[in-house]
Amino acid sequence: MKKLECIALTGALVLGLLAGCGSQPSNTGNDSAGTTDAVKNEETAAEDAEEVKEETASDESAEVPTIYFEGFMPWIGSAGKVASTDEAMEKVQNYVIEQCGVKPVPVLLPSGSEQEKLNLMIADASEQLDIIMMNPTWESWGRLAENEQIIPLNDLLDEYGQDIKAAFSGELEWLLDPMTDADGNIWALPRALETTSNPTYIRKDWLDQTGLDMPTTFEELEEVLAAFKEADFAGGGQTIPLLIVTEGGLDYGITAGFTEYGYGYWMDEQDSLIKPAALQPGFKECLEQVSGWYENGYIHPDSFTLTWADFEDLFMADRVGVIIGSYGVTANNLANLQAINPEAEYVFADGIQGPKGFMETREKASNSGMMITAKSQNPEACMKLLNWVVSDSSNFLTMMYGIEGEGWEWQDKDKGLYKILNTESFGGELYIYPNNYNLRQIGQVDNETGELRMDSKFMMEDQYRYDTTKESFDKSVFWNAAAIDALNANVSDVDKMISENVVKFVTGQRDLAEWDTFVNEDLQKAGLDAYMEAYTTFYNENK
Fold this sequence. Notes:
Elements: E1 6-9, E2 12-15, H1 37-61, E3 66-71, H2 86-100, E4 103-108, H3 114-123, E5 131-133, H4 141-146, H5 154-160, H6 162-167, E6 189-190, E7 200-203, H7 204-210, H8 218-231, E8 240-244, H9 251-254, E9 266-268, E10 273-275, H10 283-295, H11 308-316, E11 320-324, H12 327-331, H13 334-340, E12 346-348, E13 353-354, E14 357-358, E15 361-362, E16 369-372, H14 379-391, H15 393-401, E17 408-412, E18 417-420, H16 435-439, E19 443-444, H17 454-460, E20 470-471, H18 481-487, H19 491-507, H20 515-526, H21 528-542
């Protein structure tokens, strides 16, 4: 039966909104010899009316495809806890149904065991799960593709993902490379664009009191740290001159100032081998710089063992002078800190350089992204939903905050400025990950001041400053863990040894004079040669 251009839904006709709709049905009147024109017209009209009635009734009774997607809600937290009322959730779901013909249903994972639960759900054929948006620290598409647990997206993108394809056109087209295998199959859609997410923030009110200028070099930054320690603005020796948020703080936030390629895997031109970041020329000098700061008491002594909550607690204690490694700790908490101390002000320190240039490495687009499971009964609907979210920032905001005019509203749509009206009834369970496509275009204003919030400013402007950061050698390479493990099962042992010993060298638990011994003896015993051979083989086969 031909698809109708309009579908009857909850008693209302929704015109032109469902993707993939076809043409109107043609008349099928039954002409017979000897029948007068009047009779023919009457019979034809009756038959046409009956056909329309039957097709409309069929459409009304047809089920709207329900798409279950992995929900990621750190702001909600504990297992099974949802913030939306049933009424608010249903209202948003009905809106999405009207707009794109798909009902989204989030599957919230138990806090603290997300990866374990997700893996079980993917493997269990009885579990309903259509779209997964896996955290890159959990899993990437390679292993799932090899296990035939996800499907390639090429044909779906061509037919139902025109807005997504547009988002990956031009200068952003390369972002699909890490999601594509050697045969050209696209297995995932990136959750994020290439970003500079590990910035340096400096306490400006403290800086002004020292009389120093904003630092532009490591030497000047060290001078600032020394001044903060001496002045002890927090009092009682509680001042923390430098807090390194270890989730990228040392690696992506500092290393590039001392290395040619920034932080990441690189190819040694002398032997054409792919090697880990720690083996780059200059990495040892980076450790010498940071370990000197640690020895002088500029760095919080527990920086490398603290949790995210610990970082936020230290920030809120009004003790931190400089933060390197995450805009989230600063931007997301500054308003609360200023409620305690209105004088507190942090500014973004852009373009600090070391001996090899800018200190920050742009994090490449995620190797993990939005994927459609092989057990999905309606992959077409999955792609329609994802495309709809990406197609307009209003759609993204609706999934995040609820109905426009109730949960949020535009303050200036042309500038991408919006404000939150209400978070009491709808908690954002329908949040879908293609965030950077949208967040770089929109920003939340403060409801009281009407000014762009600090976190939004960073998302819209600061994290895409490609002119004062470095890109890694491997920015467009997907390091397929499963394939590399098949070449050498000991790669994780080498990586673990490197990460553990980097901390030891920085904190003085191991003397930097032993660095060459560490590389030439310890790592060799752990299987460094086989490690590099595996990565090199994979790179040459898939570059």
